[in-house]
């Protein structure tokens, strides 16, 4: 499985957009980009995933570059409750068991 | 909707003792996983099961065993606990069939301290 690179930490002002980058330069053609987050000591929570098109849901938007070597998770209006560790993962949609979470980006939303 | 239930939520254990962490899901998912999370190391896959009756090793399987007698349950056993197994353990599940989106559903974790 391809690995990902994320900055260890980021700050964002409350109400502003949070843009979390992820590099996945060795991603394969059949691998999706997934984002999860972990709030405090809770279990990780799925946010969004995509293959090559940009995706949006009620939680966030995912922008994937045309060469698929990097992506950005966008939280359009960050709230204090979005403070968490965000993990970017690449994997095939089904069948892959070595899901590498890495250490993620710790996002702190500042009042 | 319960989703994934882990037990116990926390446990202090003497080194050398046997311990089983329980995980039950009510979503009829095919695949189940056990991860451990240690400070600075993120989540690491211990064992997984693609379907009832089958299991596989993840990144850090040594010192752990699993079984998958049925779809719902996926217990993780430490035969003889050591202090390095002090960690937070997360169980997860996924559909792994048909229109699977690849999403993993996680439990709330079991905090284990081995003294």
Strand/helix succession of chain B: EEEEEEEEEEE
Mean pLDDT of chain A: 90
Radius of gyration of chain A in whole Å, from Cα?
A: 13 Å
The most extensive contact between chains is: A-B, 24 and 33 residues
Class inferred from helices and paired strands of chain B: mainly beta
| Helix count from the secondary structure assignment of chain A | 0
Q: How is the largest sheet of chain A built, in terms of strand order?
A: 1-9-8-3-4
Basic shape of chain A: globular
Q: State the distance separating the first and last CA atoms of chain A.
A: 38 Å
This entry's quaternary arrangement is heterodimer
| Weakly predicted, low-confidence segments of chain A | none
Order of helices and strands of chain A: EEEEEEEEE
Determine the number of helices of chain B (DSSP H or I, runs of at least 4 residues). Answer: 0
Shape of chain B: globular
Termini separation of chain B:
36 Å
Strand count, sense and barrel status of the largest sheet of chain B are: 7 strands, mixed
Strand content of chain B: over 45%
Structure, explained:
The complex is a heterodimer of chains A (111) and B (115). The N and C termini of chain A lie far apart (38 Å). Chain A has 111 residues and is mainly beta. Chain A has strands at residues 9-13, 18-23, 32-38, 45-50, 55-56, 61-64, 70-75, 84-91, 105-110. In chain A, the strands form 2 sheets. In chain A, strands 1-9-8-3-4 form a 5-stranded mixed β-sheet, with no helix packed on it. A 4-stranded antiparallel β-sheet of chain A has the order 2-7-6-5, with no helix packed on it. In chain B, the strands form 2 sheets. In chain B, strands 2, 4, 5, 6, 9, 10 and 11 form a 7-stranded mixed β-sheet that branches. In chain B, strands 1-3-8-7 form a 4-stranded antiparallel β-sheet, with no helix packed on it. The mean pLDDT of chain B is 92. Chains A and B meet through strand 3 and strand 4 of A and strand 4, strand 5, strand 9 and strand 10 of B.
